[in-house]
């Protein structure tokens, strides 16, 4: 008896990356720049320093160190006789003397040679102690700040689940520890037009199948059933795009190693939400010894459900009244 033609494997969908641009508040593909807030508040400089990348942070510290030493070196250099045993007119001697003074390492061959030199050196020592204390505190705060290694799938999908159209996305814990009392919140953000003709941005908190987990160890598939009460009801991907819709997801919990609160978030624009697709299975049924394999290389992979079109089953139904 003929077995018929072999079934072709499903094709993987090319998925857009969901990125975050520093310096810009980003929701999906929308980038928002705030204006009209007045001058920056100097009290926020500590917060700003904590938000810098490590590369920019060390570049800033290096620039501050260089500017301070050059400025005080000029103060010594412009008044001859300020530094004993320094070569006259040789600026590098003033720079090296400034470095020694700022670091309070003690003087060797060169030392302050006048009252003016002592005043400048004393001022630089005081400033050096303040700068060292500030940079040390910032380094400690940056290293001790709790961070998460929670990963999100690059895309979300809408697919039937137990006969009901369901929005799905994946999260995973990249660390080998546990996140205790984990919780997740998902919000749909979209533009709507009021009866008065005004464009208004609305936030809809999505009802999830499971919003809390006592232990988040490996992966967590977040599910939202799309029924008459869902803001996704009757929507297609084109509808979401026209409404400027953005799906925002936040996961939080207590890291059992750090014993501190950690969180992570991700946003999905309309083009990151694939209708009639499902995620690849990343849990192997085969055992290697007594161990199952969880393949994170397939974490972001999605496949078409085999239904035509770009809208979910039931998209032709009436919108909620």
Automatic annotation (TrEMBL):
<feature type="domain" description="Potassium channel">
    <location>
        <begin position="66"/>
        <end position="143"/>
    </location>
</feature>
<dbReference type="GO" id="GO:1990573">
    <property type="term" value="P:potassium ion import across plasma membrane"/>
</dbReference>
<keyword id="KW-0633">Potassium transport</keyword>
<dbReference type="InterPro" id="IPR013099">
    <property type="entry name" value="K_chnl_dom"/>
</dbReference>
<dbReference type="InterPro" id="IPR014756">
    <property type="entry name" value="Ig_E-set"/>
</dbReference>
<dbReference type="Pfam" id="PF17655">
    <property type="entry name" value="IRK_C"/>
</dbReference>
<dbReference type="GO" id="GO:0005886">
    <property type="term" value="C:plasma membrane"/>
</dbReference>
<keyword id="KW-0851">Voltage-gated channel</keyword>
<keyword id="KW-0472">Membrane</keyword>
<feature type="domain" description="Inward rectifier potassium channel C-terminal">
    <location>
        <begin position="150"/>
        <end position="303"/>
    </location>
</feature>
<dbReference type="GO" id="GO:0005242">
    <property type="term" value="F:inward rectifier potassium channel activity"/>
</dbReference>
<dbReference type="GO" id="GO:0034765">
    <property type="term" value="P:regulation of monoatomic ion transmembrane transport"/>
</dbReference>
<dbReference type="GO" id="GO:0034702">
    <property type="term" value="C:monoatomic ion channel complex"/>
</dbReference>
<keyword id="KW-0630">Potassium</keyword>
<keyword id="KW-1133">Transmembrane helix</keyword>
<dbReference type="Pfam" id="PF07885">
    <property type="entry name" value="Ion_trans_2"/>
</dbReference>
<dbReference type="InterPro" id="IPR041647">
    <property type="entry name" value="IRK_C"/>
</dbReference>
<protein>
    <submittedName>
        <fullName>ATP-sensitive inward rectifier potassium channel 10</fullName>
    </submittedName>
</protein>
<dbReference type="InterPro" id="IPR016449">
    <property type="entry name" value="K_chnl_inward-rec_Kir"/>
</dbReference>
<keyword id="KW-0812">Transmembrane</keyword>
<keyword id="KW-0813">Transport</keyword>
<dbReference type="InterPro" id="IPR013518">
    <property type="entry name" value="K_chnl_inward-rec_Kir_cyto"/>
</dbReference>
<feature type="transmembrane region" description="Helical">
    <location>
        <begin position="57"/>
        <end position="78"/>
    </location>
</feature>
<keyword id="KW-0406">Ion transport</keyword>
<keyword id="KW-0407">Ion channel</keyword>
<feature type="transmembrane region" description="Helical">
    <location>
        <begin position="116"/>
        <end position="141"/>
    </location>
</feature>
